[in-house]
Amino acid sequence: MGLYSDLREKLISDYAKLSPQMQKAARYILDHPNEVALRSMRALAGAADVPPSTITRLMTAIGVETWQEFRDHYQNRLLDQPASYAQRARETQKNEQDVNRDEHLLESISLTEIDNIRAAFSPELIAKMIDACGVIENARQVFIVGCGAAYPAAYQFAYGYRLFCDNGKLVDGHSGAFGDELRGITRRDVLIAVGAKPYIRGTVRAVNFARDQHCPVIAISDSDVSPIALDAMIKLVVRDHSQSFFQSFTAALSVMQALVALLVARGGQKALQRIAAAEEQLAAFDTYLEA
Amino acid sequence: MGLYSDLREKLISDYAKLSPQMQKAARYILDHPNEVALRSMRALAGAADVPPSTITRLMTAIGVETWQEFRDHYQNRLLDQPASYAQRARETQKNEQDVNRDEHLLESISLTEIDNIRAAFSPELIAKMIDACGVIENARQVFIVGCGAAYPAAYQFAYGYRLFCDNGKLVDGHSGAFGDELRGITRRDVLIAVGAKPYIRGTVRAVNFARDQHCPVIAISDSDVSPIALDAMIKLVVRDHSQSFFQSFTAALSVMQALVALLVARGGQKALQRIAAAEEQLAAFDTYLEA
DNA sequence: GAAATTTTGAAACATATGTTGCGGTTGCAT
DNA sequence: ATGCAACCGCAACATATGTTTCAAAATTTC
Fold first, then answer.
1. Where residue B2 falls among pLDDT bands split at 50, 70, 90?
2. Mean pLDDT, to the nearest integer, of B234-263?
């Protein structure tokens, strides 16, 4: 029983002083506290990819006599947690218009976001996402457009897609007009457009332009009849409910991520190899911090 | 793996049919379910005042192959209070070699994403978010940095924040080095940094620079000891679990949105007015399509 | 560049754990 | 009483677990 109410803090404050392998172990423990409570030391060591002795050494390094003592702390933490959970739920339910106004808002946001995600992965939407993948795989070039609050979702897709395909192009309008970037778009290409109310003129224009060139459009939008989705080949209508009056783009982002994941999964070994190559290249450019 | 979602019911329904000693064991288990999850079988037997063999016999009596299986159920029960989806996600991930491979993947992604969001709005994180808002409100200038896959989350915050505060600055490194954009950062400012493994050098440098200038840092990251969060004043550790090997930034984005929403809510009427003005200005610029 | 120091992983060790087999006991019907 | 079946606990077993030891490797220091 140390001076620290929670050994996590000790682990964090001493982290810099630890040897590399111990850091690896400490990091895993910090990231997966429940495993400490439930699994054996050897199993934990295996999961953290360190030999068991490292764990023992880590114990002495942070001033804990034995693994049992360490585990007991985490078991108690696990036992106390649900209590605080339930307690808080009751608390916030009781006094609604109160000092807990902030907590209440955030919890409410959480529930709304979960609903949004859930709706985005309904069987219907899942089927459409799979269709969308088929279209993307057969496209000569993949354009992605999304402005304003929708830009993150568009960017996310473009960022992931670029790692294993080089025919993607993020149309962000940064370099002047959209027209330049969409030049040469044809029926063999595809435009992925993201946008919700209020519809930004640039996005709509891009969609209309693509339609005029008979280019199929995959729309991620808030309505089947939004100016973005109206004439789209595939309409992925995601909920954007939100407590504030900004719409939430969480579900849109999640869908974009899912599309990338699906494309990779369908791409098989080849896609994986390309990603590996891309990562290697980034490492060569010294983009990342040491392994 | 029985037909019962919870082995407790099986234990109760079969209770009358059990031999006296087994009843004693069953009774103790029913009264102390957490002990099953946390302690060893022999320890439990000792606590229940029965020999270990009685526990083993009880297992076969209720149709459970092994003690491990029994314990796993109770461990999940203990974990499933905060996060009920992780297990199901793991299950759906198992049967991949299937005709519905794509559907399964997407469903699994959905569950994982919901889990990530849920974890991001735990009571602990909620409290930290509120703290973060306090820091932001008192800051002279608010810098936001996020590179690569983390850029969308950073952008999202900057985009929303700009609508009601003009002291935000998105440090995207587009215009050359980070140093230029962070020049003049002081202890009265705040840096919001978003990033997960693999940590991009630029983000880490920005964080270190801010720390050297004694500027408080709000870190949205994947670990308490990530290079971004290690010395941060407020650490918002969000889960980034994902079915593909790209990390998911859904939770990070959601947290950023929540921060904006919370700031607006706390800003009251004044913030609303500013937003109205900003929207008006955008409308004047003809950014939006008319209603 | 060599020596000193630290760090690391494999193996060894004693103990703890889950399970099984066997003899003894109990309760019950004949 | 006696045979019979179910029940029970002890002890043995194989394996798993936490810890220590030791030599090789890596890092630092001079």
1. very low
2. 94
Task: Locate A9 and state its tokens.
Answer: 């803090």
Give the pLDDT score at B182: 83
Q: What is the mean pLDDT of chain B?
A: 88
| pLDDT for B84 | 47
Band (pLDDT 50/70/90 cuts) for residue A178 is low
3-class DSSP state for residue A170?
strand
Whether B135 and B255 map to the same domain: the answer is yes
**CATH classification of the domain holding A215:** 3.40.50.10490
Q: Is the pTM of this model over 0.85?
A: yes
d(CA B169, CA B195): 17
Q: How many domains does chain A have?
A: 3
Q: Give yes or no: residues B101 and B149 share one domain.
A: no
What DSSP letter does each residue of B181-197 carry, written as one string?
A: HHTT--TTSEEEEEE-S
Residues A191 and A127 in one domain: yes
- Separation of alpha carbons B133 and B286, rounded Å: 32
CA-based angle B240:B72:B4, to the nearest 5? Answer: 105
Report chain C positions within 7 A of protein CB atoms: 6-11, 16-21
Query: Which residues numbered 50-109 in chain A sit less than 7 A from strand D, measured from CB?
Result: 52-53, 55-56, 59, 66-68, 71
Of B153, B223, B262, the CB nearest to A30: B223
